Amino acid sequence: MFLTNCSEYSILAVIPLAVWSIVVNILLYFPNGVNTYAANNQLTNYVWYFQGICFGGILMIILSAVLLLVDFYKCSSTCCAGKQLCHIQCSKLETALFALLGVLFSGYSLIISSLGLSQGPYCRTDTGWRYPFANTGGSYLTDYPSWSQCLEPAKVVEWNIILFSILIALSALQVIICLCKATYDVMVVFCGTHQILAQPDPI
Known about the structure:
Strand content: 5-15%
Distance between the termini: 37 Å
Number of strands: 5
Strand order of the largest sheet: 1-2-5
Number of helices: 6
Structural class: mainly alpha
Largest sheet: 3 strands, antiparallel
Radius of gyration: 24 Å
């Protein structure tokens, strides 16, 4: 029952998740609402992979729409003349493949966002513009005093941590939903055709 509900209804949740991914990714281009850093290419390189805008956003919206349309129109019902037997056939192979494609898209967004969080921001320090936390293996996340190394943009460490973390959470939810969808559809494929037996009318 859980897999059925997840497959048939939870795919709708991918759309708002994708919209939020687009919004969050766009915010990464404007630390503290300032647009000059993007114009001067003074942002972390992982914001230019468009993981939230394209892969976790636009492509996931398109994919979700396709999945919903395929689920709605792909089911066909045929009745055999002269027999009290109706076959309702729903091919789930296509939707399973689309769902796995969604796993790849959202997984890409998850990986790139994780790498961006681990690397840390590109910022101006006492020695110039660089990645001061690139070799820390992500340990800077709890080393709050070290954040003061970034002099510009202001509060860029907090900005990146919050937004990349949100992207990671959104992408992870998309991966879970698409995996659930793919799992259910593959189970339907292996179980075969659904059949409904119609009882003859009483004489």
